[in-house]
Inverse folding.
């Protein structure tokens, strides 16, 4: 069976792994803001080397890194091509019939591509080093101040936890149903895309029905165990920020301030 | 004298169906369960066993009548959490009652809901996992456990809350024989060693043989109640109530019909063998 890991978390023991998820989430936000403030290639170089150093410190295998980039590769490519072809201005480098590639296009295209790649790289690095459960805890904590505005932080975190808990169970069940339907002659593997999509119906319907039944039973079981929302709840894993976390937060804030002040 | 833990007086419960009609699931039922007792609750499908279980920890509230748990009435809204802490529930499907992504966090779930301190939670996790024999699995993901282990995890999650009573709704129905034995042994040791009251709903008659008292439900009412020896000695027509007689009492009954004099109250293989050989 395919194993599915949400966010592709890779357990480890590096500094980044050990950081508080709240700090990582806030740092990620700060770094993303920094990326959008950067105005020069020098800025991207500095930012890139910072991310590169952190990545080395995590000792994650490179292939995971590229695997994380794969889904956005097409978007990056399209951005690059569109800018090359349609952003006009400055010197003309290539002329091919009605199409031209001009200086501004190359400049803006590479600029946008770099920004996108660094954005994805930074995010992938954080998700690779943070367990989804820690993420949920961090999100619950960070959304707490917005509770009064009606942001259901606890509920979001609980939903994430339950989703994580049930993904393997539902995958197993899906696999069983698939095999059962195949034994009765169902065909999931041939035909064009529409045909295949239609053939999935006998798999998805029982899976959905069972998922709803599970949800029903789980809700009763949770209530029986005194669940009544986030109020007055304690946690087994209390999040605790350590000096390391403060250093990390200070560093990324300093980077943002530096970029704004020097205008790189 | 032992004190009464569960006290049901003239309890009636109706489900309201989609077409606004009501369906009576429990009808004018009265019952007292003493502290430390092991009750087996049997009855055909739809006889109201699960409904009764849910009435016991205030998941459902009676239409008429009154249920008191350790002196707390389920009807009073403020008592509900006290009641749910005292009456732990274990359900049939092992998968659909595990909330968290690791074994120890699932045990912690109920304690977190009660607002127990972190240090105390850790201590109780260790304790409960020890009790059910899952200490080695504390960090495991629940979906990697066997069915029997999942049910023991569910029991651990409940006993961590230090309940007075366990209500188990067909906890072994989806397990293989080994898982069943694991779970039954765990339930029995809770009952004997911790004096936790047990209400065990089951459709395996052999499981009912080991109870202090057997309650037979039929159409929302108690059709028969008594020690296993008297319920299964042939004096009550279990077939009429939609139930099977367990194998050894059935064999004893057949031998009796063939003219052998076999005393009533013989429930398991050893007893029968030693009687026949004496
Ligand atoms: N949620 C529900 N809504 C409507 N009717 C229900 C519901 N749950 C159970 N019933 C009905 O109540 C009766 C008793 O059911 P239940 O307590 O589940 O019996 P048992 O557990 O002994 O099989 C049955 O006729 C059943 O169809
Ligand atoms: Mg039932």
């Amino acid at each position: 069976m395919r194993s599915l890991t949400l966010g592709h978390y890779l357990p480890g023991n590096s500094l980044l792994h050990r950081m508080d998820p709240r700090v990582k989430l806030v740092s990620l936000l700060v770094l993303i803001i920094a990326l959008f403030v950067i105005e020069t290639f020098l800025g991207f170089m500095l930012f890139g080397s910072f991310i590169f150093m952190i990545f080395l410190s995590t000792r994650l295998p490179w292939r995971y890194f590229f695997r994380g980039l794969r889904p956005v590769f097409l978007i990056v490519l399209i951005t690059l091509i569109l800018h090359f072809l349609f952003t006009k201005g400055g010197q003309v480098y290539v002329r091919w019939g009605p199409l031209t590639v001009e200086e501004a296009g190359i400049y803006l295209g590479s600029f946008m591509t770099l920004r996108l790649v660094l954005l994805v790289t930074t995010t992938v690095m954080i998700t690779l080093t943070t367990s989804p459960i820690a993420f949920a805890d961090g999100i619950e904590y960070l959304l707490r101040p917005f509770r009064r505005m009606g942001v259901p932080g606890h509920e979001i975190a609980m939903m994430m936890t339950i989703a994580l808990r049930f993904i393997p169970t539902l995958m197993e069940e899906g696999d069983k149903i698939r095999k059962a339907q195949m034994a009765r002659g169902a065909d999931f593997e041939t035909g064009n895309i529409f045909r295949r999509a239609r053939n999935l119906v006998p798999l998805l319907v029982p899976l959905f029905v069972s998922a709803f039944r599970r949800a029903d039973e789980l809700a009763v079981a949770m209530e029986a165990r005194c669940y009544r929302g986030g109020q007055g709840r304690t946690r087994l894993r209390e999040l605790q920020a350590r000096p390391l976390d403060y250093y990390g937060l200070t560093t990324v804030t300093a980077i943002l301030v530096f970029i704004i002040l020097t205008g790189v | 004298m032992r004190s009464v833990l569960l006290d049901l007086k003239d309890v009636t419960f109706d489900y309201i169906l989609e077409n606004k009609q009501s369906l009576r699931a429990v009808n004018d039922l009265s019952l007292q369960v003493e502290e430390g007792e092991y009750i087996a609750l049997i009855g055909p499908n739809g006889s109201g066993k699960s409904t009764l279980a849910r009435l016991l920890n205030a998941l459902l509230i009676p239409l008429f009548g009154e249920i008191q748990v350790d002196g707390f009435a389920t009807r009073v809204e403020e008592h509900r959490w006290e009641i749910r802490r005292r009456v732990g529930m274990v359900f049939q499907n092992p998968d659909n009652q595990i909330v968290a992504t690791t074994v120890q966090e699932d045990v912690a779930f109920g304690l977190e809901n009660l607002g127990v301190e972190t240090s105390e939670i850790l201590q109780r996790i260790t304790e409960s996992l020890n009790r059910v024999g899952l200490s080695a699995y504390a960090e495991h993901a629940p979906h990697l456990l066997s069915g029997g282990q999942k049910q023991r995890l569910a029991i651990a999650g409940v006993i961590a809350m230090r309940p007075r009573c366990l209500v188990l709704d067909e906890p072994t129905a989806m397990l293989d024989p080994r898982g069943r034995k694991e779970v039954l042994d765990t339930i029995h040791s809770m009952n004997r060693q911790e004096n936790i009251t047990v209400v065990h709903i089951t459709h395996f008659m052999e499981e009912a043989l080991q109870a202090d008292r057997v309650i037979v439900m039929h159409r929302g009412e108690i059709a028969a109640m008594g020690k296993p020896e008297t319920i299964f000695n042939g004096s009550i027509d279990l077939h009429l109530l939609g139930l099977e007689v367990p194998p050894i009492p059935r064999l004893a009954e057949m031998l009796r019909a063939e003219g052998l004099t076999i005393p009533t109250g013989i429930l398991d293989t050893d007893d029968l063998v030693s009687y026949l050989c004496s």
Residues 15-130+240-262 of chain A form one domain. Strands of chain A lie at 92-96, 99-102. Chain A touches chain B through 28 residues (CB under 8 Å). Chain A has two domains: 15-130+240-262, 148-224.
